[in-house]
Amino acid sequence: MPYDPNLDKKLFGETKDFEMTRVTVSVNQYNEGEKKLQLSRENRNQDGEWKFAKLGRMFKDEVEAIIPLMKKAIEFM
Q1: What global pTM score does this model have?
Q2: What residues does each domain of the chain span?
Q3: CA separation for the pair 38, 2 (Å, rounded)
Q4: What DSSP line would sit under 6-59, residue for residue?
Q5: CB-CB neighbours of 11 under 10 Å
Q6: pLDDT, tens digit, for every residue of 43-64?
Q7: CA 11, CA 22: separation in Å to the nearest integer?
């Protein structure tokens, strides 16, 4: 069965901005299945546009900033 974007629901989403990057915490559900937490990163390029990037490793200040968002997200799971 191919991916159908119409079946993908975003139940929660908040973004924390940093100097040159931002991290989004969201809860998603596909086709009424299990609710899942997603963490994603976007970096600002030289033109000021946001581009998706692999989350990878995080700095301590990033972790401290998104833990409260993750705790909020749990309420939607």
Answers
A1: 0.89
A2: 5-74
A3: 20
A4: GGEEEEEEEEEE-SSEEEEEEEEEETT--EEEEEEEEEE-TTS-EEEE---S--
A5: 14
A6: 999 999 999 999 999 999 999 9
A7: 19
